[in-house]
Amino acid sequence: MAWINLAAWIPCTEVEGPGKRAAIWVQGCNKRCKGCCNPHYLAFEERKLIEASELANNILDAAKKYDLEGVTFLGGEPLLQAQGLAVVATMVKAVGLSVMVFSGYTVKELYGLDLTGTKELLANTDVLVDGVYDSSKPDTQRQWVGSTNQTFNYLTNFYDASIESTQRIQREVELRISTAGKIMINGWPSL
Ligand code: SF4
To answer: I want to staple 117 with a disulfide (CB 3.0 to 4.6 A). Which of 66, 82, 107, 129 is the partner?
Structure first.
């Protein structure tokens, strides 16, 4: 049984990858990029432990409800929880959803580190956006990335580089206010 230490998830968003997607943020990252969007997701502490297949089933329910195109894994560092996320990715790929992953590790680093579950997760990933956020190299041209050093790696034919460019004048964020008054903002703010 594989478990995921979940920081947050949204069943349907339109600002974390192509089309309508579920977004999964995992807890814990060992990078410390200046200007990281999610500093509260960096500590290696227990947030919400969820069994991977349960999370996958929640996403599959959301996919039916919202007609999702895919799921995006963000962090924190998804590759540090590759074993559990590989289970989720395999289950959602089986019904035709796409999988997008944002990692602070480059592909080269990932193959060198051989973190548990990496091969299985990457085998079920359509596009891997890799590299740390470098605030000295802001990217104002491509969607969803923060800095020009970050690379889109197309691991299947599901997507191609056309997804990176935006027809929109500004990149977008979403703002959610819960019934308890908690505010959540996601997406990459314009620079
Ligand atoms: S790799 Fe990503 S989550 Fe980790 S510190 Fe850098 S920007 Fe934040």
So the answer is: 82
